[in-house]
Design brief:
This protein is an all-alpha fold. The chain is about 80% helix and about 0% strand.
Length: about 150
């Protein structure tokens, strides 16, 4: 439920649900790490970057203690890197990005694979629809740009 409220931009309600889950779980439960990650997302969306960093660091600590999937830790490292970039702290941003890259070595980001497929699709579409009007071409390019953002 918290995730649903988060995606509806109702951050207070999302936090209510996340805090309820934390109260129900004991401290040794691995799921608390996931909940802390979600709370970090909420705080990032609210621009409470220091609080978000606290929750993301708790997430990494819990997930590391439970031998969690490395991909999840990579995602958290990238979120932390993003926050440090927003705070113009490029030294720490680069440090966490490098950490993520070390964990992620040999595993390309899924989003990069999807983007590459989409770009190839868009090129094929552009080649097969050369007779589009200028407004249709602009619309197609706009759609491609929105997807890649």
């Amino acid at each position: 439920m918290g995730s649903n409220y988060y995606h509806l931009f109702n951050y207070d309600k999302a936090l209510d649900y996340y805090n309820t889950v934390i109260e129900l779980l004991n401290d040794s439960n691995r799921l608390i790490g996931d909940v802390y990650s979600h709370i970090g997302d909420v705080e990032t969306s609210r621009y409470n970057f220091d609080l978000a960093l606290d929750y993301y660091n708790k997430t990494i600590q819990i997930l590391s203690n439970h031998n969690a999937n490395q991909r999840h830790i990579v995602a958290i490292c990238r979120k932390i890197s993003y926050i440090y970039r927003q705070q113009n702290n490029y030294e720490y941003a680069n440090l966490y990005e490098e950490q993520a890259n070390e964990f992620d070595q040999g595993f390309p980001q899924l989003s990069h694979l999807y983007n590459e497929r989409f770009v190839n699709y868009a090129r094929n579409q552009a080649d097969t629809h050369l007779n589009l009007s200028p407004s249709q071409q602009a619309d197609r390019l706009y759609s491609i740009g929105v997807y890649l953002i």
